[in-house]
Structure formats: C-alpha cells, structure tokens
Design brief:
Blueprint lengths: L4 E4 L11 H16 L7 E4 L1 H10 L4 H18 L2 E2 L5 E2 L1 E7 L9 E5 L5 H9 L2 H22 L8 H15 L10 H19 L7 H15 L3 H10 L7 E7 L10 E6 L11 E6 L4 H4 L6 E2 L15 H4 L1 H18 L3 E8 L2 E9 L4 H13 L5 H7 L2 H7 L3 E2 L1 H6 L4 E2 L1 E4 L2 E7 L2 H9 L4 E5 L7 H6 L2 E4 L7 H9 L2 E4 L4 E4 L4 E4 L2 E4 L3 E5 L4 E3 L5 E2 L7 H13 L3 E5 L3 H9 L5 E5 L1 H4 L2 H12 L3 H9 L2 H15 L3 E5 L15 H11 L3 H11 L11 H6 L1 H20 L5 E6 L5 H22 L6 E6 L2 H5 L1 H7 L2 E5 H9 L10 H6 L13 H18 L4 E5 L6 H9 L4 E4 L4 H14 L1
Parallel strand pairs: 3-4, 16-17, 17-18, 18-19, 26-27, 26-33, 27-28, 28-29, 29-30, 30-31, 31-32, 32-33
Antiparallel strand pairs: 1-2, 2-7, 5-6, 5-7, 8-9, 8-11, 9-10, 11-12, 13-25, 14-24, 15-19, 16-23, 20-21, 21-22, 23-24
Helix pairs in contact: 4-5, 5-6, 5-7, 5-8, 6-7, 13-14, 13-15, 13-20, 14-20, 20-37, 21-25, 23-24, 25-29, 26-27, 29-30, 32-35, 36-37
Bound molecules: adenosine-5'-diphosphate (ADP) and magnesium ion (2 copies).
The site of adenosine-5'-diphosphate has 19 residues, from strand 5, strand 6, strand 7, helix 10 and strand 11.
Length: 898
C-alpha cells in the first residue's frame, strides 16, 4: 500500500529532500534538515496525492485518517505530551506546503489544540497566562479566517480584518503600542469579543474541541490549494493546477513565551546583492506570522542586515551571541548540503533555537550572479553548475534601468523606505491592486502604493512598474514577491498615510492624488514625487557579471554577433562582447535627413544616368558609415546587408503636398509627375513586393554604389593598418539567378577597386535566407556563396504566411485555443520554420562543408531558439546588443545540455 503520511523530527525521518513531489517543499526539507541533525520540531507530512483524492472524494478517507492518528501518537510519545491532554497538552501547527513555494499564497494555522480544557493545563505548566492567551487569540484569528471563512467560501465576511480592527481599536483605547504589551487580562477580554464577533457572523461557536480544530485545519489547507489567490498565482507563475499541496502537522514551538523567546527569518546570504553574510530579521516575544505578514517591522538579525532606518535596532547577534553562532553554524551546514543560498525560518523558545523551514532563497539577478561565482570559488559548485543556475532573467535584471543619477543629485526624495528589491521605476500612483490592473489595461504605467500587500494583490503587483508599501520589512510579502519578479520595490515607509476613500496619500504633510507621478530608486529606498528619467545600469563594471561572461565564453560553441546599423550600436555591442556584426542594415543610413533627398531623386529619376548621379551622391556618406563600423569591429567580421526595403518607403505619402512640392522644386519637375510616380510605386503587398535583391536587379547601380562604399572604406582601413572583414549579404534571394546576377555586380566593382586602390580586397559574399524556396535550394546557393544567414523574422512570415505586424490582433485566440503555445516571432517554430532552417543548413553543408551559417533576427537573442540553433550546429547567432549577454549564457547552457 502507498504511504500517505511521513514522520519527521527528533530522529524519525521517513522522508527526504528528493521526495518534494509528494511531500512538498516544506515537508521534504523539514525531513532533510532533521536528518542533518538540525533541530526541527517533530511532526508529519500528509502527501500531495492525498490532496488530489480529497478534492475528488470531498473528504479524507478512513485509512488515511487512521494513518494520521497513528503518526500523531508517535509525535505525542516523542514529545511526552498529549494532544488534548489536560495535564501536558501538545499544541500543533498545520502548514501547507506545495512542491514550489508560493509565498503567502496558502494557509497555516498555529496553536491548534487550545480549548477550555487545555488552556488551564498550559497555564499551570508554563506559569505564563499571558503567553497562553496570546497563543489562543492567534489561534482564533487564524482559524476563523482560514477554516471558518476561506475554506467554507464565506469570503464576504472578512473576519480577519474585523478581528484586527477590534484589536487595533482596543490597543488605541488602552494606549498599547505593541501586541506583546497586552496583559493576560486584556487578552482574555479581547478573546471574549473575538468569540462574540465570530458567533455573530458565522452563527456558530468557535470550536472547543482539539480534534475538530485539527481536522478542520487539515481540510482547510487542502482547500486553500484551490483558493482564488493561489489559483491566480499559479497562472502567473505557470505552475500546474494538479500538483496539490501537502500538509505538515507539526509540534508548536513558541517564540511568544516571553523575553527569552523570539522568531525570525533569514537568508543564508544577502538576497539583494549576494554578499556572503547571513541576512535576516527577528522579533522578540512573537510568533512567526508577525514577521512574515509585515504586521510589525522587525529588527535586523546582525550588523550586515542593518539599513539606515534600522541602524539603532537591537540585533540577535548582539543580544544572544550564542544563539546567533548556532544560526551561523546551521547556515554553513545548510549551504554545504544544499549547495545553494537558503531562506530559513526559525523560532527561539526559551533560548533554544528551532528551525522551521528551509528552501532555496529567491534573489535578485545581481545576487544570483555573485552567489553563483562565489560558491564556485568556495568549491561548493562547479563552473558548469554556475552557468546552469543563472537564468536569463537574472541577466536581464542587472541590465535593468535605474533612476538617472544626475537627476537624483538635483532632486530630493520626499521619503525613504527599505530597499526591498533593487532597480528603478517610474509611474502614476494608484492605491489598490484592482486600480493598478485597470490603469494598466489603459496602457498606463503605474506604481502601486499600499499599506502592505497581501496575496490578493499579486495580479495588480504584477502589472505595476514598482511597489511601495507603508508597512513590512525586507521579508514581507511585497518584498518577497517583488524580488522574485525582479520588480522595483520599497517597503516599510512608515510616513505614508494612505486614504483609500479619497484616493490620496499624504507624505510629510503633502497630499498626492491618485495618478500623481512618482519615481523610486529601490536600490537605495528613495521616493521622488516626480517623473524622473531612468537610465541603463552600469552592469559591465560588475566583476561577477564579467566573470560569468568569461565562464560562458569558455563553454559556448556558438559565436555571438550583434545586429547593429550604426557606429554607436557597433561600439556598444563590442563592449557587451559581440564577436562581430551579424546584420548591418543599410537602409537606416538612407533615411538620414541629409540623404533622403538623394534617395528620393534616385527613385524618381526616369533616366538611368540621372538615377546613377543621384545615388552616387550617397557614396561619401555610406563610405563614412562603413568605415566607422568596420573600424570599430575589425578584425571581427561585419555582415552588411545591401538595400532591402521597397522604394515607396522612402517617398512622401501622397497626401503630403508640402513635401511633394518642395521635392518637385528641387528636382525641377512638376508635382503631378511626382504624385504619379508615388502612385506607380504603391504596392498591394509591400512585404512581398519590389524589394531586396529584386530591387537591385532592376537598379544595379544601388548595389554598385553600396559595394563601392564598402570597398573604399576597407581600402582606407587597410592603409591605416587595420584588417577589415566585410561580409556582403544579398537580401531576399529565392533563385540562384538572382544571386548570380548580384555576384557579378559585386565582382565587377571589386575588380575596379582592386585596380584603383592597388590592393587585393578581401571579402565574403553571401545571402540572407528568408524565403522557403531559398531553403530548398540552399545547396545550390551554397555552391556560389561564402556564407548564408537566416533572416528568421521574414522566414517566419513567409513560412506561416503571418504578417509580423498583424499577428498581435489574433495570436491570443491561438493561445487560448492551444493552436500555438508560443509566439513564433519570439521563439523559433522548430516544427516548421526550424525544420526549413535545418534542411537548408544540411543541404548547404553538403555542397560546401565549411560554409559559415548564422542567424540574424529576433530569434538570435531568444534562449530557447538558441538551444535549437546550437543543436543544428550553426556557426553563430546575431542579436540586438543588449541581448548579447543572454545569448552567451544560452549558448553556454546549450553546449552542455544537448
Ligand atoms: P508560509 O508557507 O506561509 O511561510 P508556514 O507554514 O511556514 O507558512 O508558517 C508561517 C510561520 O508560522 C512560520 O514562519 C513559523 O514562524 C510559524 N510556524 C509554523 N509552524 C510552526 C511551529 N510548529 N512552531 C512555531 N511556529 C510555527
Ligand atoms: Mg514559511
Ligand atoms: Mg527581410
């Protein structure tokens, strides 16, 4: 028979970390920690399949119930306590735990087993009535919320908020600031009021039976798997809905037992910047939910967890150095064992340290890279593991914009808070998650400003540029979720006064309305009441990033080139590591204000000689452009694509009489003539029209001019002792004839210039493959070409017959109906377009084994597509400059993931 319940703690460990599928992350790692001799309060885990059966049968079946009762007996024996015992009562926590952590998404109920029978016993035993009643009021608050309201789907009652409200009012009236200052009498009074409130809304008494509490909580945790917010979160994170959650039933340890007790959370390394220092927060005389829920702003556990705002707070390190040392020892044990940074929860009961959870810690991109590199230095992981672990999102993130430092110098922040997730963001402020969603739908950029966030807010948080909260610490819900997404976030700005009714926030006596522009620097925690410019970050000075790049370079096989059309981008791409330019589009050079006139004259001229004269006006410009780009990139290759777009793109629109007029004057012809020519050039389907090499067949003088510009630039470079490597690329070839035609033109110019410049020009001639027909005759093209490069954007358009500019209007329907799972313009369609590339590459290599084959187009910077291109053994991919680091990473991963 299948095992459904697994014991853990105090020497009995039936599960381990590899059973995460059935025990969930929390359960599996509780067992694993316990096996490492780390103190874990004993308990047991009910497996995820039980959750799924529970949903089918609507109840927990008898055999499993029996198993649970048996396991509870073992825990009671281990603890020498009894659940419901009237002398020495055992209290339990019931905790959810799915395979992947879903921060704060699901439910936990603490202090289960407190009843009119056990309360006196526990008071007698601990001699601490305040502690017992504090635990009881917590049980009431959590249980009524999780079990009586949410699990029963009575979500309109909002009992938690009602009870919090009673508590807050009571505290205000009695001038109590912190929960832990409430006396035993005051707590008893509150408990009475809580129970009345519960009865009023649910029409039943708060359960006074241990067993009822326990089964109620277990079932509620199962049900929380299908709660609305958990469901939404899984959709965003693409977590399957059929995984189910495990339930952990565990002996309670008490952080609220008085001055020698506490609770806290910690990361074994700094999750924001990756520093190898334990980083966390703690609260004296509290239970864990206080820290996680952001109800009280906690204290830093050590010096390195301090921020400007907490610089005078008490640390665990100073307060209890011995316990702190134990925590450091556990950090080392955990990191050695898991070989990764961990996120832990702990509780100190009467100066004894207990570990309650460990999991892989979420971290920023910057931290991920630093931790990876340093763990390799510490010999915890191999170089390949470093590469395997870093994801493209990490790199994306460190390249994220920041608030322009120059602007920060001259502006003063209106307020500061805890820098929970680094970066910069700018947007219009809104105060609820639903407003954030609505504004986002209207294409507005918003900053979400909240008291604190809760799991109900995730959707709105997701669409916001950044998040600001008034309450909470570095491990509050907002902080955790934002960091996971790499979203800018500031928490704990206690001076924010949000008025939800009037939709305003008042900060230091100034009131801002919804829609006001704010900017945040969440690396420092600064808030500005203006729209400040964001700038790209200076990541290429980050030494860990540079080390990562050199590691990826060591493993990758594919070369990474950049798409760059001007000297500036070329230089940027070089800085980012490009190994050449894979696509330099020349038409952008034509659009320049000074040059477009000549282009237009060329197009409108009737006589070939006029046309030639006009086009030759462009020669000096083009020569200069090519000179600068080649100079920047040499000796690496630069693939220059000859003119590609249809001519009408260079002409004024028919309606632009003013432009037509001035053009006519300039060319000494009538406006009418120009208009007629524009009408002539109009194409029904310009994407498939008179463009690419077709244009060059009609007007070879364009190719002549461009090639002359390239070669003259090369001549000048060679004279300056530089070694240029131009690769001339003929666009949109579909027949061998087209290629031959253009090849002749290029050869003719080369010969002319060799003679004129008295040098032997070195160049490669190839074609861009972007039509299915070209793929099918790639062997014949390859016989005549030095290289081929797949223009996968157009190849996708021409293979699917989708227009890239229109697909946006219907692609969602394709996703919704499972016709497509990915946008083929983002990730290469391996089945169709990818097959064509594969066939063409194979054919090309058959006729010319050492032909160079590359990719230019968006897919060259897409990790999934890069895996594919690596596997079909292409030579290089080319992508936009800022994608280069991601392409390096993907190419390195691809080289050992085949
Ligand atoms: P989540 O998955 O939302 O973090 P947990 O199950 O980890 O929920 O519980 C939240 C907090 O409750 C924990 O951080 C811990 O402080 C407290 N807690 C859970 N179980 C126990 C226990 N057995 N004893 C003491 N505190 C507990
Ligand atoms: Mg937890
Ligand atoms: Mg094209």
């Amino acid at each position: 028979m299948k095992k459904h319940v697994y014991l853990f703690g105090q020497g009995i460990n039936e599960g381990n970390a590899s059973q995460i599928d059935i025990l969930g992350g929390k359960g599996a790692n509780l067992a694993e920690m316990s096996s490492l001799n780390i103190p874990v309060p004993p308990g047991f885990t009910i497996t995820t399949p039980v959750c799924n059966t529970f949903f089918k049968q609507k109840s927990i079946n008898k055999t499993i119930k029996k198993n649970i009762v048996q396991s509870l007996k073992t825990v009671e024996t281990t603890m020498s306590k009894g659940f419901g015992d009237i002398k020495n009562p055992l209290l339990l926590s019931v905790r959810s735990g799915a395979k992947i952590s879903m921060p704060g998404m699901m439910e936990t109920v603490l202090n289960i087993g407190l009843t009119s029978k056990t309360i006196p016993a526990l008071i007698e035993k601990t001699k601490n009535p305040r502690f017992v009643y504090d635990s009881y009021r917590r049980l009431i608050m959590m249980y009524s919320d999780v079990v009586m309201e949410k699990a029963e789907q009575k979500n309109h009652i909002q009992i938690r908020a009602k009870l919090e409200n009673i508590l807050d009012k009571y505290k205000k009236k009695h001038r109590v600031i912190n929960d832990y200052e409430l006396t035993s009498q005051e707590l008893q009074h509150l408990i009475k009021r809580f129970k009345n409130e519960i009865k009023k809304h649910f029409k039943i008494e708060f359960p006074d039976s241990c067993k009822e509490q326990l089964w109620g909580a277990i079932e509620a945790v199962f049900k929380s798997w299908n709660g609305k917010r958990a469901f939404q979160y899984r959709n965003i994170e693409k977590i399957p809905h059929d995984w189910g959650t495990a339930v952990n039933v565990q002996t309670m340890v008490f952080g609220n037992l008085g001055k020698t007790s506490a609770t806290g959370v910690a990361f074994t390394r700094n999750p924001s910047n990756g520093d190898n220092n334990i980083y966390g927060e703690w609260l004296k005389n509290a239970q864990g939910e206080d820290v996680v829920a952001g109800i009280r702003t906690p204290n830093p556990i050590n010096e390195s967890s301090k921020t400007t705002r907490t610089k005078n707070s008490q640390t665990l390190q100073k307060n209890w150095p011995n316990i702190y040392k134990k925590l450091i020892k556990i950090k080392n044990t955990l990191e050695k064992h898991y070989k990764d940074m961990q996120d832990v929860e702990f509780t100190i009961e009467s100066e004894k340290l207990w570990m309650l959870q460990t999991r892989k810690g979420k971290r920023t991109g910057e931290a991920a890279i630093k931790i990876g590199i340093e763990m390799n230095d510490e010999k915890l992981i191999t170089q390949k593991e470093v590469i395997d672990r870093i994801i493209s999102k990490n790199i994306d993130e460190i390249m994220h914009p920041k608030v322009d430092p120059e602007l920060e110098k001259i502006n003063t922040p209106i307020e500061s808070g805890l820098p929970a997730s680094p970066g910069g963001a700018c947007g219009q402020i809104v105060f609820t998650a639903s407003e954030a969603e609505e504004w986002h739908k209207k294409n507005k950029q918003v900053l979400l400003v909240r008291h604190e966030t809760s799991p109900e807010d995730v959707q709105g948080m997701h669409v916001s540029q950044g998040i600001i909260t008034a309450k909470g610490g570095m491990t509050s819900h907002a902080a955790l979720v934002a960091r996971g997404w790499g979203k800018a976030c500031i928490v704990g700005c206690s001076n924010l006064n949000i008025d939800l009714k009037h939709k305003t926030v008042t900060i230091n006596n100034i009131t801002y309305k919804e829609g006001a522009w704010f900017t945040i620097n969440s690396t420092e925690g600064f808030i500005y009441d203006q729209k400040l410019n964001l700038v790209k970050s200076n990541f290429f000075k980050n030494k860990y990033f540079l080390k990562l790049m050199s590691l990826t370079n060591k493993f990758k096989r594919l070369k990474i080139r950049a798409n760059a059309d001007n000297p500036k981008d070329a230089s940027l791409s070089k800085k980012l590591g490009s190994q050449g330019i894979g696509l330099c589009r020349t038409e952008h050079m034509f659009f320049d204000k000074k040059r477009i006139r000549s282009v237009q004259k060329m197009i409108l001229s009737k006589l070939s000689v006029d046309r030639k004269n006009a086009i030759m006006e462009l020669l000096p410009y083009q020569k200069n452009d090519f000179y600068k780009i080649l100079k920047e990139i040499s000796p690496n290759p630069v693939t220059i694509r000859l003119l590609d777009p249809p001519l009408h793109e260079f002409l004024p629109s028919q309606k632009n009489t003013e432009l037509i007029h001035s053009l006519a004057k300039n060319m000494k012809i009538s406006s009418k003539e120009i208009k007629n020519r524009i009408i002539d050039l109009f194409e029904i389907n310009p994407m498939l029209g008179h463009r690419g090499c077709r244009l060059a067949v009609s007007f070879p003088e364009i190719t002549e001019m461009q090639v002359e510009a390239i070669f003259t630039a090369c001549g000048k470079l060679i004279n300056n002792g530089i070694n240029p490597n131009p690769e001339i690329m003929i666009p949109l070839v579909s027949t061998v004839g087209e290629f031959e035609h253009q090849k002749m033109v290029v050869k003719k110019i080369a010969k002319k210039l060799n003679k004129k410049l008295k040098i032997q020009l070195k160049y490669k001639l190839g074609t861009m493959i972007e039509l299915p027909r070209a793929c099918l005759i790639a062997d014949k093209i390859a016989e005549r070409a030095d290289f081929i490069s797949f223009g996968t954007n157009d190849l996708t358009q021409t293979t699917f017959g989708f227009s890239r500019d229109d697909i946006g209007s219907f692609i969602q329907d394709y996703f919704d109906n499972n016709i497509l799972t990915e946008d083929p313009f983002k990730t290469i369609d391996q089945e169709g377009v990818g097959q064509l590339v594969k066939i063409a590459a194979k054919k090309a290599k058959k006729s010319k084994p050492n032909i160079k084959i590359g990719i230019c187009g968006e897919h060259g910077g897409d990790p999934k597509s890069i895996y594919f291109f690596n596997n079909i053994k292409l030579n290089y991919v080319s992508c936009s400059p800022y994608r280069i680091p991601i392409a390096y990473l993907a190419a390195a991963k691809a080289s050992f993931r085949v």
